[in-house]
Amino acid sequence: MTIHDEILTIANKIANTGKKPTVALIKTKLSQTVPLPLLISALKTWQHDPEFISLPEDTPQTSTKNREEAEPLPHSLSEELKEMKQEIVELKLLMKEFLAQQNK
Question: What is the pTM of this model?
Fold first, then answer.
């Protein structure tokens, strides 16, 4: 599970209890320290999905062909784009941290 998925899962669990997910609430439940900009970014993109409270660890990955048959192409592209944008945000944050460490 990526840190982004963990943040979304925690936000859904909090929302399922009737509370509004906040940065502070999510931060206390994370398994690792997360840069605040990443946490804020993930929470901004979060939309409540009551069913997304964990990711199955042992389910086999569907092949690309099966996934395309199961989902319409625009939806797949939209999801891929969303994941790529999140990876870019994470990479930018990592790069900023790296550069800050180099400048010390």
Answer: 0.50
